[in-house]
Specification:
alpha+beta; Beta-galactosidase, Chain A, domain 5; GH92 mannosidase fold; about 775 residues
């Protein structure tokens, strides 16, 4: 209670908070980082700053078998009974695991354990049991008591620095174990090389190179301690020989103790200490000198770093003010928090960074960022950042993508990148819509001509994902390339965004070329069956065909025909005409949501979660589908489906995310949807109206304007829109423009218990479609 009162005093509630409203709890206090740490959310609870390079978090099992690592993609899993240690790098909600770098584990007493041990056998290693009752998690802060040793562990982080604070039991010697052998998604031979160096001033530096999801990834660190070292040992477990080097600072020695190898550990001994031990750790992708410079650039004690990061989080979260029932408010603010974790900073304080060519480059006038899960995040995560983050953040993102393209050995934009390295995971060239959407919304601070050139280069790189055949045939042939149906429609959407940006820049020849390609989605659509299907090089559709089949390496990417037959965000009107008009489209949408899954087994497909019939909210290809009723003139059906999704897919508990958060995409969907609108087609400058899930909200825009969402009559019973006004004038259409939001004003909803089947049904009220009339 005292902690809550203190935070409330430090961070006042939103201006519109009413007496007795839960909005008196600040945005910072409303966040629960434990949401998504159970089930298949794959989030971590540890400490990080907004977009921070360091994600300092507990790992409950960093030595899982490969077949079991999917559930431990974030390092921490809520139902695990032990903590193995605290490492400095993690993904938030990824569908693949890696990272978990530089694991630190405190130990107390006369014996120092050098191996993690078996979680089923207490005392068999350095891992420790813990209780969730002893955990505290908040943005930028995490704490837990290690039950086996009695050590209280606290974590906080700045942008490039993580800070540990360990309180040891009185009278017991304090030790730290630094284990460079561990990694998330570990396997023999993953650690290619590593090093440990003890400097004369007591600074510990080191590095390691790994081959994992990102090949040849290099990471460097620098570590300093608030207490003097009594002794230390560097150990290469391949040799099982202890290295006796420099025995601590303050003895007049300038010796640099060093150990190189593939299985290194450092044992650091502090003796009996008075008060907590603080450990400051900085990372760099460049070199150890860069890590030391990053450490110097973010000076401060644990409490100082924590306070600065807490202030940064309050500012970032304050971009959106929300008044809603407490569970919903927690869901939304936690979702907002998760959207602000990536793309993470990757350049050092001096602007140097390691790029996709494994060379060191200098970022000028921008901060280089990495961790781009673009197949997921182009849909809502990046569009949300264009509204709630300063233009500098968004221009940094674009400049980072362009720098990656410049130094890419293939000369193309990132696909799925982290630590500056390309993984080639997922399909499409979805950096393209991120850039186009930012440009269309007026975000500048980057070279638009260079950006367009990079987009075209990515869209015409024939060796990538069947693009050569796509350009030649007008579709990706399944006998030449797996997941061909999905690739065809995703390429076509990306091409449309190139056309949009080129047209806005006056590059009509490029625009004409890519507008034609934007229509290639039709070439894989079987008008006889009404499904998107994979075609062979000879033009025939592949048989046999089952629209409900999900098999990796087949016609579709992490989905089936039910999801991908709707992926034409740039031309839903054109799709609906092929399907036979509004009524048949609505019937097919209903059939998707109402599909009987009895006897259907998708257990072989890892990312298929959160099913409502054949609608799969736990994976991204479905995310826009509930909004498509608006395009068919039945917005009340969108309102019904959104209530169904929100009620079943999000809750304020560790298992409260139906599927992987995927670097903020699942969360961005909820933030937009709760506010009442969603970017179905990034690049169109439109948001499709769904229905609100808040009583009152406001977006504090980077330009200083304020866009408010006010709602009358919202309740579980009143799930339908009765009427909508924009700045006091009736709004008959089912979409908003980006300019209308950025200009500030008020969007007002009146909710009711029965559908309003007149509002938003006219042809002129429907959102943008490429083959229809452009709504402005």
């Amino acid at each position: 209670m005292h902690k809550l009162l203190l935070l409330a005093a430090l961070f006042p509630a939103p201006a519109f908070a009413q007496a007795g409203s839960n909005a008196t709890v600040t945005p910072y206090q409303a966040v629960d980082p434990m949401i998504g740490t159970g089930g298949e959310g794959h989030t971590y609870p540890g400490a990080t700053a907004p977009f921070g390079m360091v994600q300092l978090s507990p790992d409950t099992d960093a030595s899982c078998e490969i077949r079991e690592c999917y559930g431990h993609a974030a390092g921490y899993r809520y139902d695990d009974p032990t903590i193995q240690g605290f490492s400095h790098t993690h993904f938030s909600g990824a569908g693949h695991s890696d990272l978990g770098d530089v694991l630190v584990m405190p130990q107390a007493g006369d014996t120092v354990q050098m191996d993690a041990g078996d979680p089923k056998q207490p005392g068999s290693g350095y891992r420790s049991r813990f209780s969730h009752d002893s955990e505290t998690a908040a943005p930028g802060y995490y704490a837990v008591t290690l039950a086996d040793s009695g050590i209280r562990a606290e974590l906080t982080a700045g942008t490039r620095v993580g800070v540990h604070r360990y309180t040891f039991p009185a009278g017991k010697a304090a030790h730290l174990l630094i284990d460079l052998r561990t990694s998330l998604y570990n396997y023999p031979g993953k650690i290619l090389w590593s090093g440990l160096h003890m400097h004369a001033d007591g600074t510990l530096t080191g590095f390691r190179e790994t081959r994992g999801w990102a090949p040849g990834r290099k990471l460097y660190f620098a570590m300093r301690f608030s207490k003097p070292l009594k002794s230390h040992a560097f150990v290469d477990r391949d040799e099982n020989v202890k290295y006796r080097g420099f025995q601590g600072p303050g003895r007049g020695s300038d010796e640099l103790a060093e150990k190189l190898g593939r299985a290194l550990e450092a044992r650091l001994d502090f003796g009996k200490v008075d008060g907590p031990l603080e450990v400051r750790v900085a990372l760099s992708g460049v070199d150890e000198a860069g890590a030391i410079a990053n450490l110097d650039a973010e000076a401060g004690s644990f409490d100082q770093v924590r306070a600065a990061t807490q202030t940064a989080w309050q500012k970032a979260l304050g971009a959106v003010e929300i008044d809603a029932p407490a569970p919903m408010r927690t869901n939304i603010y936690t979702a907002l928090y998760h959207t602000l974790l990536a793309p993470s900073v990757w350049s050092d304080a001096d602007g140097r960074y390691r790029g996709p060519d494994d060379q060191v480059h200098q970022a000028k006038d921008f901060t280089f960022r990495s961790t781009f899960s673009l197949w997921d995040t182009f849909r809502a995560e990046h569009p949300l950042l264009t509204l709630i983050q300063p233009e500098k953040t968004n221009s940094d993102i674009v400049n980072s993508l362009l720098a990656s393209q410049k130094y890419s050995p293939q000369g193309i934009l990132p696909v799925w990148q982290f630590a500056g390295r390309e993984t080639w995971t997922m399909i499409g060239y979805h950096a393209v819509p991120v850039i186009a959407d930012a440009y269309m919304k007026g975000i500048r601070g980057f070279d638009a001509d260079a950006a367009l050139d990079a987009m075209v280069a990515s869209a015409t790189y024939a060796p990538y994902g069947g693009l050569g055949d796509y350009m030649r045939l007008g579709y990706v042939p399944i006998d030449k390339e797996p997941e061909a149906a999905s690739k065809t429609v995703e390429y076509a959407y990306d091409d449309w965004t190139i056309a949009r940006m080129a047209r806005a820049m006056g590059k009509d020849a490029i625009a004409d070329r890519f507008e034609k390609r934007a229509g290639y989605w039709r070439n894989s659509f079987d008008t006889k069956s009404g499904w998107l299907r994979a075609r062979k090089s000879d033009g025939d559709f592949r048989t046999p065909f089952d629209p409900a089949a999900i098999n990796y390496g087949s016609d579709y990417t992490e989905g089936n025909a039910w999801q991908y037959s709707w992926f034409v965000p740039q031309d839903q009107a054109g799709l609906f005409r092929i399907l036979g008009g509004d009524a048949k489209t609505i019937a097919k949408l209903d059939a998707m949501f109402d599909y009987d899954l009895s006897g259907v087994d998708y257990s072989h497909a890892e990312d298929i979660a959160g099913l409502i019939g054949q609608y799969i909210h736990g994976n991204e290809p479905s995310h826009h589908v509930a909004y498509l009723y608006d395009y068919a003139g039945a917005p009340w059906r969108t309102q019904e489906r959104l209530a169904q999704i929100v009620d079943s897919q999000y809750k304020p508990t560790p298992d409260g995310l139906a599927g992987n958060d995927d670097l903020g995409q699942m969360s961005a969907w909820l933030v937009f949807t709760a506010l009442g609108f969603y970017p179905v087609a990034p690049g169109s400058n439109q948001y499709v109206i769904g229905r609100p899930f808040v009583d009152h909200a406001a977006i504090n825009l980077p330009n200083g304007k304020r866009f408010e969402i006010t709602v009358d009559g919202l309740s579980p019973a009143n799930r339908y829109i009765g009427s909508v006004t924009l700045n006091g004038k009736p709004l008959a259409r089912t979409w908003l423009t980006d300019a209308e939001i950025r200009s500030g004003g008020e969007l007002h909803f009146t909710m009711q218990a029965t559908p309003n089947k007149q509002w938003g049904t006219a042809k002129s009220a429907r959102p943008f479609s490429m083959s229809g009339t452009l709504q402005r």
